[in-house]
Design goal:
Blueprint (H helix, E strand, L loop, with lengths): L6 E4 L13 H13 L3 E2 L13 H13 L16 H14 L4 E3 L10 H15 L6 E5 L1 H4 L5 H10 L4 E6 L4 H11 L5 E4 L5 H6 L4 E3 L7 H10 L5 H16 L3 H13 L16 H13 L14
Parallel strand pairs: 1-2, 1-7, 3-4, 4-5, 5-6
Helix pairs in contact: 2-3, 3-4, 4-6, 9-10
């Protein structure tokens, strides 16, 4: 069994071309920039518009990253799906590709399902994949799924699959829940990643593993510096700088806003595209976001400029 993952991970934005197909070149360039800035790649998370991507598209993009030389060790692909067989296919592919962990949503169409049902979902995937190289990080985002990853469920899964269930991403926004996960299970090697860098210093102080945050797409170097230096004399200033950027994106529709800002720094208007049902950020809203970012001297250093329409 590998050690649980640690660090900061971006749920990587997925660029689309004019036909709304995933744009492989833009995707690779963005991922390379994130990795070079010190962060890992939680490809196919919520902010990747993963629920709008097919199984084949996710597999194809993963293969393209590996072919481009992005290290498999930096990947934590999202492999959860409503259909059990889709989740198994994606998870098998991630393991075969060498990813040291996968981020796995519970099935999210049926609401108010029991812990027994969610346990059976994860157990069936683990048994069908059947690999001692599989590391699952449970994805708790109840405001979207209406299917929480409860503490009792974590306990059951750890008891049955202690070498496979290695951690969780807590996107609930509830610090008390993240704290309970960390204090309850970090000593057992269970890695807990809050979904916002605003909780990074607090979580690391009690044994958290890092964070998996949307705005790592925009500020990977700054958030990595915070991860490395939270307990140094510069830690408070690093946290404040990261928080300032996060608050600006949180005040807008986050996925369209992040894509619009990437378009600005890449000098590539095509980066603004989102798949329906999302809609691109309008110019008035974009102007507000960009002005706020200028106010905190935000930058995306060395971001690749594609200069495409």
């Amino acid at each position: 069994m590998s050690s649980p993952l640690r660090g900061v991970y971006a749920p990587v934005l997925t660029p689309f071309d004019q036909d709304m197909a995933p744009d492989v070149d833009r995707f690779i360039a963005h991922c390379r920039w994130v990795v070079d800035s010190g962060a890992g790649l939680a490809v196919f998370g919520t902010n990747s518009e993963a629920a709008s991507l097919s199984v084949d598209e996710r597999i194809g993009l993963t293969d393209a990253l590996l072919a481009a030389g992005i290290p498999a060790a930096r990947l934590m692909p999202g492999t959860g799906a409503c259909a059990l067989t889709d989740a198994v296919t994606l998870t098998r592919h991630a393991v075969a590709s060498g990813a040291p962990g996968v981020l796995m949503l519970p099935p999210f169409f049926f609401k108010n399902v029991s812990d027994d049902g969610v346990f059976a979902y994860y157990a069936e995937i683990i048994e069908r994949v059947g690999s001692d190289k599989l590391g699952i990080y449970l994805y708790h985002i109840p405001q979207f799924t209406q299917v929480p990853i409860t503490l009792s469920l974590i306990e059951r899964l750890l008891k049955r699959y202690p070498d496979t269930v290695r951690g969780a991403k807590d996107s609930s926004g509830d610090w008390n829940n993240s704290k309970a996960m960390i204090e309850g299970y970090a000593s057992e090697g269970f890695a807990v990643f809050p979904a916002s860098e605003s909780l990074l210093s607090k979580s690391l102080a009690i044994g958290g593993a890092g964070c998996i945050s949307a705005t790592i797409n925009m500020n990977p170097g700054g958030i990595r510096a915070l991860f490395d230096g939270w307990n140094t004399p510069q830690g408070e200033a690093l946290q404040a700088e990261a928080d300032a950027v996060r608050l600006i994106f949180q005040a807008a529709p986050m996925i369209p806003a992040m894509k619009r800002v990437v378009a600005e720094f890449a000098q590539d208007p095509g980066w603004s595209s989102v798949r329906p049902p999302l809609v691109a950020l309008d110019e008035a809203a974009a102007a507000v976001v960009l002005a706020a970012l200028r106010g905190v001297e935000f930058d995306m250093p060395a971001y690749p400029r594609t200069s495409r329409g």
